[in-house]
Amino acid sequence: MTQVAVPTPPVERGRVEAKAGRVKKRMTSRVASVIALVIAVLWTIPTFGLFLSSFREPDLIESTGWWTVFQNPGFSLQNYQEVLLSGSSSAPQLGEYFINSLFIAIPATLFPLALAAMAAYAFAWIKFKGSSTLFVLVFALQIVPLQLALIPLLQMTVAFLHPAMRSISDVIPMIPDQQYLPVWIAHTIFALPLATFLLHNFISEIPRDVIEAARVDGAGHGQIFLKVVLPLAMPALASVAIFQFLWVWNDLLVALVFSSGTPDTAPLTQRLAELAGSRGQSWARLTAGAFVSLVVPLIVFFSLQRYFVRGLLAGSAKG
Amino acid sequence: MTSLDLMGKILQFATGIVAFIAVFGLILFFLDRSSRGRKDFIQLALFLGPAMLLLAVGLIYPAIRTSFMAFTDRTGAFNGMDNFIWMFTQPQALITLWNTVLWVLLVPTISTVVGLVYAVLIDKSRGEKYYKMLVFMPMAISFVGASIIWRFMYAYRSPSREQYGLVNQIIVWFGGEPQQILQDSPWNTFALIVVMIWIQTGFAMVVLSAAIKGVPAEQHEAAELDGASPIQRFFNVTVPGIKSSIVVVVTTITIATLKVFDIVRTMTGGNFDTSVVANEMYTQAFRAGEPGRGAALALILFLMVTPIVVYNIRVLRKQREIR
Q: Helix B39-55 and helix A94-125: axis angle, to 10°?
């Protein structure tokens, strides 16, 4: 048989193969979608169950499973009312802790961000002896787990910050002597190595021409930093800020060590962990309480997803 | 909460922010006005000073102090290796170490495998974005929140009553007896590990999904023409193509797992033989009044984390160079 004898048109052959391929692909993709769907459902069910339960009537939560919601209907906002608004001393009173979380997380994001941006600028654009050595040192501090610093840092807080806070409280009686200050400072310190490193990556890549042009116009470092670098670094600042905000919002360890643990300063996570420990079975409160603490991260997640993912990936080894 | 409390809090918050902005503004103000001669030094000090001071006082000095503290007893007197001997001989402490090993073996591997498989399965599918969102979502919420979600999943009631914890209900549906999942050692540790896997899989999935999209399409097509099945293509094209990303994911999750604290603290408080190093460190140092033991545990944690972090950073750097 010669090669010319049975000429299969290349186009035709291609089409047949493509068809077979398509059938095969559809087969595997059907199996694939089923597996993917199973994983997606498995991963969603726990959150969904809690979410649904938080809107069920309290006695239903603790007597029937949430999956029987069609046989045992009954929805109310009573749980949320109870955890947020009830003033009775045994109630979770989460409103207060929500404010603490907010008032801890905002400064604990702003402070390290500003300090790290300045340090990053100095490392990138001010020439000095030992610049790279010092930068490597800051970078290397990322390996220090915060557990390694907790005990002496708490001792210093008790020795120096507590007297300072008492005198602040003496001068301004409206401010209690248990304040946010230690938590702010601890979070600021722990955030600096990573934030400096990430912002340096970005700030050092601003084109030299841009900085030089400002310098020629007579701007000093202060002005260049404020008017040129900060606006240009906005995307990086946003990513780091979102990461740090969520990190602080979700933190338990730093809060346990440095906040007073009282309604004066304790954040939501600390209160919830406490409720879970002491009232581990009162699910009417715990379901709604957990969701109160999840609302802010979920809003950030769904509204700022791009920055959120970027920030999270960059900082995933923090702590 | 009384309105006076609230006023006090707002006042603290506002004072903190205003004071900080004032200091920040003053620094920037002085930067451009310092005298010519020593300008460079002053500028540098103003830019770098605050951050370096905080790091030196708040991180470097405490880390060194802790390292020394690891060799002292509860009164602060030097006691040689006693804390480490305690750690490696006492049954309770040994359980803690063994649990940590279990966490580190299971969480990174399972999270990465499930995350990778999921990323491949949903790659280029319709609704990929939403599929990703569902699995990534646990990454956004706090470990405390995740722990409460899973405590509800594991909730136990006596067999005579209707279960409201889904896991126990499933056990009952299959004809089993409901279990006190969080109290029965050693299985309770696995129940806690599930929570961490649930959280970290999303991270693995997002990183690996981005890496998969970076594998050249021609390689896939070439393998397809050679008659490779999808599974062969996965192992011979996709996996080698994203090897360095897999390494980064595994090491990153390992670091996070070594430091896991909140989950153990919220789920069991470290009771029923579920403690891990990071939780035991907190318990010993801040609850049991044994700062020496706590410091020793912190030091061990540091020694375990360091090589992995160094390796992780080296791979990350190499990856950047290639790009």
A: 140
Rounded distance, CA B230 to CA A199, Å? 41
Cβ-Cβ contacts under 8 Å, B148 against chain A? 50, 272, 276, 286-287, 289-290
- Same domain as A260, residue A135: yes
Among the partner residues A28, A118, A223, nearest to B47 by beta-carbon distance: A118
Q: Do A152 and A280 lie in a common domain?
A: yes
Distance from CA of B89 to the nearest CA of A (A): 22
Q: Domain of A15?
A: 10-82
Q: Which of A82, A105, A137 is the C-terminal boundary of a domain?
A: A82
Q: Which of B30, B62, B221, B171 is nearest to A146 (CA)?
A: B62
What is the distance in angstroms between the Cα of B45 and the nearest Cα belonging to chain A? 9
Portion 207-226 of B in contact with A at CB < 8 A: 207, 224
**Does residue A44 form part of some domain?**
yes
What residues in A contact B52, CB-CB < 8 Å?
A: 119, 134, 138
Each residue of A223-248: pLDDT tens digit? 889 889 999 999 889 889 988 999 99
Cα gap A248→B99, rounded to integer Å: 27
Q: With contact defined as beta carbons under 8 Å apart, do A118 and B35 qualify?
A: no
> Which whole-number Å values give the CA distances from A292 to A65, A81, A104, A267, B308, in the listed order?
21, 11, 16, 12, 36
Contact between A28 and B66 using a beta-carbon 8 Å cutoff? no
> Same domain for A102 and A17?
no
| Chain B CB contacts of A104 below 8 Å | none
Any CB–CB contact under 8 A between B181 and chain A?
no
- The answer to whether B294 faces chain A, any CB pair under 8 Å, is yes
Tokens linked to A175? 């401010």
A50 & A102 share domain: no
Greatest alpha-carbon pair distance for chain B in Å reads 85
Closest Cα in chain A, distance from residue B269 (Å)? 8
- Based on the fold, state whether residues A37 and A169 are members of the same structural domain: no
Q: How many domains does chain A have?
A: 2
Clarify whether residues A205 and A264 are in a common domain.
yes
Local confidence pLDDT in tens for the 323 residues of chain B: 577 788 888 999 999 999 999 998 888 887 777 655 566 778 888 899 999 999 999 999 999 999 999 999 988 889 889 999 999 999 989 999 999 999 999 999 999 999 999 999 988 888 888 899 999 999 889 999 999 999 999 999 888 888 889 999 999 999 889 989 898 888 899 999 999 999 999 999 998 998 898 888 888 888 888 888 888 888 988 999 898 889 889 988 998 999 999 999 999 988 899 999 999 999 999 999 899 999 999 999 999 988 888 888 787 777 666 54
The answer to whether residues A60 and A129 belong to one domain is no
